[in-house]
């Protein structure tokens, strides 16, 4: 079984992948993480009580990775600590941006591909700290841009 640890200035978050539920999403994410794609990027969108989103190479939610993924919707509920792939309106447009649920977001079930989950209380605590940062409206009508930069310092893939 593969895991990824996301190192941030707020602490680490360890996630366990669900390759049986979304094999292409897991493979894509692992490949990008192992290549260092995510290192130095940031969590650019944070909505208290909903989710934290990161992985955009442009840092503003408009960037893409090297490939598009077909939807792999599954029966995993979008609840606190679940890792899922962000996408545009096309269900088959997921690329590199991801989000981690801060709370239940069951309205996303069957519409976004869940492919991992946080593994422990320390990871949940880090998620909660990030979820509480001050945000502002970047001009989109949504107060979700962190006032201070929340960096993904490094992602490390492991087998344990």
Output the keywords:
eight-stranded antiparallel β-sheet; alpha+beta; two-stranded antiparallel ribbon; single chain; 160 residues; 15% helix
Please give the number of β-strands. Answer: 10
Shape: globular
Give me the number of helical elements.
2
What does the radius of gyration come to? 14 Å
Protein architecture, described:
The protein is an alpha+beta fold and 160 residues long. It has one domain: Cyclophilin-like (Cyclophilin), CATH 2.40.100.10. It contains two helices and ten strands, in the order E-E-H-E-E-E-E-E-H-E-E-E. The protein has helices at 23-35, 121-131; strands spanning 3-8, 11-17, 43-47, 51-54, 82-85, 98-101, 114-118, 135-136, 145-146, 154-158. The strands form two sheets. The protein has an eight-stranded antiparallel beta sheet. A two-stranded antiparallel ribbon has the order 8-9. Strand 3 and strand 4 form a beta hairpin. The longest helix is centred in the N-terminal third of the chain and has 13 residues, at 23-35. The N and C termini lie close together (7 Å).
SSE topology:
Elements (H helix, E strand, L loop, with lengths): L2 E6 L2 E7 L5 H13 L7 E5 L3 E4 L27 E4 L12 E4 L12 E5 L2 H11 L3 E2 L8 E2 L7 E5 L2
Antiparallel strand pairs: 1-2, 1-10, 2-7, 3-4, 4-6, 5-6, 5-7, 8-9
Question: Can you give me a brief rundown of this structure?
Answer:
The protein has 160 residues and is an alpha+beta fold.
């Amino acid at each position: 079984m593969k895991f990824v640890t996301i190192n941030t200035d707020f602490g680490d978050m360890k996630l366990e992948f669900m390759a049986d539920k979304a094999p292409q999403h897991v493979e894509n994410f692992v490949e990008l993480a192992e290549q260092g794609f995510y290192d130095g990027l940031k969590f650019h969108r944070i909505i208290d009580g909903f989710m934290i989103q990161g992985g955009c190479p442009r840092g503003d939610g408009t960037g893409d990775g090297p490939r598009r993924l077909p939807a792999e919707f599954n029966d995993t509920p979008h609840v606190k600590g679940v890792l899922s792939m962000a996408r545009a309106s096309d269900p088959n447009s997921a690329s590199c941006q991801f989000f981690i649920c801060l709370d239940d977001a069951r309205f996303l079930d069957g519409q976004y591909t869940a492919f991992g989950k946080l593994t422990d209380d320390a990871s949940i605590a880090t998620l909660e700290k990030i979820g509480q940062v001050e945000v502002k409206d970047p001009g989109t009508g949504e107060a979700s841009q962190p006032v201070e930069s929340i960096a993904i310092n490094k992602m490390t893939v492991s087998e344990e």
